[in-house]
Write a structure and sequence with these properties.
A five-stranded mixed β-barrel has the order 8-9-10-12-11. A four-stranded mixed beta sheet has the order 1-6-7-3, with helices on one face. α4 runs antiparallel to α5. It is flat, with a radius of gyration of 20 Å. The chain has three domains: 47 residues, RNA polymerase II/Efflux pump adaptor protein, barrel-sandwich hybrid domain (OB fold (Dihydrolipoamide Acetyltransferase, E2P)), CATH 2.40.50.100; 76 residues, OB fold (Dihydrolipoamide Acetyltransferase, E2P) (Beta Barrel); 80 residues, Ribosomal Protein S8, Chain: A, domain 1, CATH 3.30.1370. It has five helices and 15 strands. The longest helix has 16 residues. The two termini are 37 Å apart. The mean pLDDT is 86. It is of the alpha+beta class.
């Protein structure tokens, strides 16, 4: 059983082996977020559809460099907390700050791809640069982090399908940051697909809804 819920809605009654994004009172389970409730097989969860990006270890994110110090770079990761990448992670060795200049690796405004390595005190998010950490593109879009996280955790084919349909190069962060490389036409096509993700609250059938946006040969159906 699937249904849309808001905070405080009763999602289900009874006993479940596991649940997430709900709280239990007596035999009733209440939603903690705006989202889609999924009930079945002794399991219950609410998939968040709104809200800020909440970092989790192992997440692939794209951040914007907002500060560069001798020992670390600070990144805006589209969250209520910043991300930090230690200088030695860029140089791949222990370094002496007096001999190595981090600004030769990264500068303010750079887009950096990384994975969440560890979280300390619930607010200090340390990142490990991706093998191809420097992200270059012609446009940057932001979609709901909750929906971006769902697309990743569900092993969705949506990111690869958007690449196929538009012909654009895309890097898609679980924190809702999407970087697109391509000409204006390709960028506009990617934007149409992302709009479908943003506007559709029922995530069932999202893959097919995106395909419907495009006609044959990768042309938008309303072009």
């Amino acid at each position: 059983m699937n249904k849309l819920v808001i905070p405080g809605d009763v999602v289900a009654k009874g006993n479940f082996r596991s649940w997430s994004n709900v709280f239990k009172k007596g035999e009733e389970y209440f939603s903690m977020f705006v989202g889609r409730a999924e009930v079945g097989g002794g399991r219950l969860r609410v998939i968040r559809l709104t809200g800020p990006y909440i970092p989790k270890i192992g997440d692939f994110v794209i951040g914007v460099v907002t500060d560069v110090q001798p020992l670390a770079a600070t990144l805006d990761i589209n969250s209520y907390v910043n991300g930090f990448i230690m200088a030695n992670a860029f140089f791949k060795r222990r370094i002496d700050p007096s001999r190595y200049d981090l600004s030769k690796k990264v500068n303010l405004g750079d887009l950096v791809a990384a994975k969440v390595q560890r979280i300390e005190r619930g607010k200090d998010v340390f990142l490990q640069p991706d093998q191809k950490w420097k992200v270059e593109g012609d446009a940057v879009f932001y979609i709901s982090p909750a929906k971006a996280h769902y697309i990743y955790t569900s092993r969705s084919r949506i990111p690869s399908k958007i690449k196929e349909l538009t012909g654009a190069e895309i890097r898609f962060g679980v924190n809702g940051v999407v970087v697109v490389k391509g000409d204006l036409k390709k960028i506009e096509m990617v934007k149409k697909a992302l709009d479908v993700i943003e506007l559709k609250y029922d995530l069932n059938g999202l893959y097919n809804e995106i395909i419907k946006v495009f006609g044959k040969d990768g042309k938008s159906t309303d072009s």
